Amino acid sequence: MTLGQRIQELRKKANLSQSELAAKIDISYPQMSRYEIKEVQPPADVLKRLADVFGVSIDYIVNGSLEQKAQDSLDDAELLSQFKEVEQMDEDDRGTVKKLIDAFITKRKVQKLAQ
């Protein structure tokens, strides 16, 4: 999901039109439209006002949630689902899974170096 799409989604959840949101954050309607549709990056002060209106962090507006980041960067739906399951485990079990993954990654790196 892009920054513009996140702004649009938050605006719709807040039941605001583009012009209403523009008025709340003290910018013009055309500029608000550019942020949502043309993917123009708002300056820091506008991001702050948007975050305040929506009750979210600037980081969320710019980058999305951790889950969205994971979905955007992982093509393997099964792997993403497995990571979600691991996240629900207790700390000891998560640590064990992380060690196993780390060991496998290290093994692959060593194999590549040996080639």
TrEMBL record:
Highest taxon of the lineage: Bacteria
Record has Transcription as a keyword: no
MF GO annotations: DNA binding
One Pfam family linked to the record: HTH_3
CDD domains associated with the record: HTH_XRE
Domain HTH cro/C1-type, chain residue ranges per copy: 7-61
Family matches, as InterPro entries: Cro/C1-type_HTH (IPR001387), Lambda_DNA-bd_dom_sf (IPR010982), RstR (IPR049639)
Descriptive protein name: HTH cro/C1-type domain-containing protein
Species this chain originates from: Aquimarina aggregata
